[in-house]
Amino acid sequence: MSEHDCNAIEIAPGVHWIGALDPGLRSFDMILRTANGTTYNAYAVRGSDGVAIIDTVKAEFADEFFARLAHVARLEEIRVIVLNHLEPDHTGALPELLRRAPQARLIISKRAPAMLKALLKPTDDALDVEVVDTGDEVSLGDRRLRFLNTPYLHWPDTQCTYLVEQQVLFSGDVFGCHHCDLRLFNDRVGEFRFSFDYYYAHIMRPFKSHVRDALKLIEPLPLTLIAPAHGPILRERPRRYVTRYRELSSSGEGFDRPFEANDQPASLIVFYLSAYGSTTRMAEAVQAGAEAVPGLRVSLYDLEGSEIAPFIDLIEEADALAFGSPTVNGDAVKPIWDLLSSLGGISLRGKIGAAFGSYGWSGEAVPMIEDRLRGLKMRVPVSGLRLQLTPTAAELDACRAFGRQIAEAMTGTSNTSVSAERVIDFAELSP
């Protein structure tokens, strides 16, 4: 297939790829590197009673989409338009498709109606919309489309569509990746395993409990081909990609259970940096205090000169995270922010977070870190601890108490919290 060839590609009998290629894309949604570009996969399924369109493409590529569609179907043959996901890269051509094929009815998941309304901003209720759930089917005569409700993969509205007779799974973003290759099929394109795992890590990993729920629906299905919304079409050994998702979504699984049900000790990780050694002494005291509580594993990491990537798996498996930073120019130090900003790709909801640090004048770093932890959906049950300049012996005792309180919050042995020492504002000392 040449770069300018807009023919549809048959991927199974009566099933055609009518998507678009974007080989020049180098960043997706501002968070993913796309060294090989991406594809916006859309499909046409022909039955004895008409044609179904499954997803569309990004608006800028609508011309490619309609050109390929014209090769396999007349607009008046389109009976249904299935939207597995309403994100604009899959629905950009939808308004024009609805204008050209007004007889078609939209098929969306049960969580999608409000999002569809926000997407299309309809001025009336003329849209023919059918809401489906797991097990619901739409007939195309000699073929059936069966729907699987797979929310939060990676938006609340996502679903998968299964072509029963052909054993083809139109999986939406699940099993996809950002890898553009004109040869289209996984047994013909270049190496894309890194892109597959990289996509999972940044798109699906925060929702891995939902991935496991979806796999319960997908694993029992006979599969001859998986047709995702991005990247290569998986026709050679499609089952191995399902298995890979099971492996990826099961890592650290035990840490999703409550502490009492976990057969491993609860894990607290303490990250810190120190300008003159004061925050280091605080971190060591926090570690000592936490380790005094039985059934706890405490790890201490100095971020100075450390790379962030190796910590991500540790953080995902941990039950609690404490961050120690001095206040420099009214802020936490950059490596702390670098680490915190890298955590958007994993689920931290419900984990315990805490902040501490030494300061010279005002101590803004600790409350700023706490705000970020709450923004990441972590619980912050123990008030942050700030100490001015070099900690005294009594203040190091307070650090040990702080660590112990975090540990007790993790193990459910205490409902109390440590209050930070009152920070003296030097402006209050002015006459």
Task: Give a structural overview.
The protein has 431 residues and is an alpha/beta fold. It has twelve helices and 21 strands. It has helices at residues 62-72, 88-91, 94-100, 113-120, 193-204, 208-218, 239-250, 278-291, 311-317, 334-341, 365-375, 393-411, and strands at 9-12, 15-17, 20-22, 27-28, 32-33, 38-40, 43-47, 50-54, 78-82, 105-109, 129-132, 137-139, 144-149, 159-163, 168-172, 225-228, 266-272, 296-302, 320-324, 352-359, 385-388. The longest helix is centred in the C-terminal third of the chain and has 19 residues, at 393-411. The radius of gyration is 26 Å and the shape is elongated.
Give Rg in angstroms: 26 Å
How many structurally independent domains? 2
| Quaternary organization | single chain
In which order are the strands of the major sheet placed? Answer: 1-2-7-8-9-10-11
Tertiary shape:
elongated
Q: Which CATH C-level class of the largest domain is it?
A: Alpha Beta
- On the 0 to 100 scale, the average pLDDT is 88
Q: How many helical elements?
A: 12
Report the portion of residues in β strands: 15-25%
User: What structural class do the secondary elements suggest?
Assistant: alpha/beta
Give unreliable regions as ranges.
253-263, 416-431
CATH fold description of the largest domain: Metallo-beta-lactamase, Chain A
* Secondary structure: helix percent: 25-40%
Descriptors:
431 residues, disordered C terminus, alpha/beta, 12 helices, 7-stranded mixed β-sheet, 5-stranded mixed β-sheet, Rossmann fold, elongated, Metallo-beta-lactamase, Chain A
